[in-house]
Amino acid sequence: MFNTQIFQWKSFLILFFSILFLLFNFRRIFPQKLFRESRSDVKYIRSPFDRTLAFIRWNSAHIQRIPLIEKYRPFFNELHYSIPSFTNQVNLTADGLIKYDFPYKMVSETMEIILNGTYSSIQGILFFHFDAWINPFKFVGMNFENIWFLDSTVPPFICMKSEKEIFWWSDINGLQRISQKARKLLEEKHPKKYFIKDENEFCVGWSDIYYIPRRFFQDFILLSNIYHSVGTFHEIAIPTIVKIIDFTYRLSNSHSIITKISDCWGNCCSSGAKSIDLQIRRCGHRMDLNNEIIQQTFLRSLQSQFSLINKTFS
Ligand SMILES: *[C@@H]1O[C@H](CO)[C@@H](O)[C@H](O)[C@H]1NC(C)=O
Ligand SMILES: *[C@@H]1O[C@H](CO)[C@@H](O)[C@H](O)[C@H]1NC(C)=O
Ligand SMILES: *[C@@H]1O[C@H](CO)[C@@H](O)[C@H](O)[C@H]1NC(C)=O
Questions:
Q1: Is 116 touching ligand 2 by the criterion CB < 6 Å?
Q2: Which of 87, 109, 238, 311 could disulfide-pair with 96, CB 3.0 to 4.6 Å?
Q3: Does ligand 3 have an atom closer than 6 angstroms to the CB of 74?
């Protein structure tokens, strides 16, 4: 009576459906934790500047440096080249400003283009000279909602009421007069909009590298227009503008919205950075790109950081 053939068929079917069940419920039966990585845990390494436009300024038209500077492109959302006579109109990616006194005006016009256009992925602008260096991955962890401003000795980032208070630029006439003119104009055009501690006060500071987050673009545009209209030199205009923004928007006396960067190599007027400086300092000014060793170090340094982009980690 015992039918071995049916028994074998039954066993086979049970085994078959068991395997099918296991296959379909594998993930449920064996929790995801058992796997080293599941799809949603995979993270890609991104450049800290992937939402930043790099505004790169040349004071003289060394366009032969463009291919070298292009190496920054993968680290930034967009690059803007500000090169004397490069083009005759400002757009998102270029301007041709000739005079070196007012590059902040071009920065502010680029901000206007960003705000007027559909560039919502750009959340800040990092300004730097083409012969300054930036090691992008050494900026991981920075507060991208703050303004960043350099802190050095030449010139120091300080505010004063009289140009006699500082040895630097004491030979340039009328700094104080110009800044007072700007303050007066600001008060006339936008009364009480900004917190001005002292109407005679103005600031100076090393302005070859700085970062402005999008939340302050509107203020930077308004203030740049005022300071530019009376001809304020950039190393006075920018520190003064960022200080006005800081005093207006800080939450309390001790909560500045400026992150001071005091570990950049050099200052406004230094040169002679060595290879080791380019490797260990996250930023600096100036590097001599005519020097073959410096150029190679710069390229290698960006190349090694480039190789990190889009690597996965979990
Ligand atoms: C900006 O102008 C430059 C120079 O004329 C041009 O090469 C570039 O394509 C323009 N960029 C945009 C976004 O229109
Ligand atoms: C941006 O838009 C404002 C308001 O419409 C306009 O006045 C200004 O000229 C525009 N700026 C640029 C650079 O397009
Ligand atoms: C990284 O991945 C993004 C998105 O897939 C891609 O657009 C970008 O070009 C990649 N960058 C590099 C340097 O591989």
A1: yes
A2: 87
A3: yes
CA 3 to chain centre: 80
**Domain 48-308 annotated CATH 3.90.550:** yes
Ligand 3 atom closest to Cα of residue 46: 1
Domain ranges of the chain: 48-308
pLDDT in tens, 43-90: 899 999 999 999 999 998 889 999 999 999 999 999 999 999 999 999
Is any ligand 2 atom within 6 A of the Cβ of residue 109? Answer: yes
Give the ligand whose atoms come closest to the C-alpha of residue 113. Answer: 2
Ligand 2 pocket, residue 113 CB under 6 Å: yes
Which helix (H) or strand (E) element contains residue 243? helix 234-249
Instruction: Give residue 23 CA to ligand 2 midpoint distance, Å.
Output: 60
Position in ligand 2 atom list of the atom nearest CA 115: 1
Task: Copy the structure tokens of residue 224.
Answer: 């740049």
- What is the C-alpha separation between 96 and 83, in angstroms, rounded? 5
Is 191 within 8 Å of 199 (Cβ atoms)? no
pLDDT tens figures, 122-165? 999 999 999 999 999 999 999 999 999 999 888 889 898 877 66
126: phi then psi, degrees, rounded to nearest 5: -105, 115
Residue 135 in tokens: 């090691």
Separation between Cα atoms, residue 115 and residue 117, nearest integer Å: 6
Which amino acid is residue 89, in one-letter code?
Answer: Q
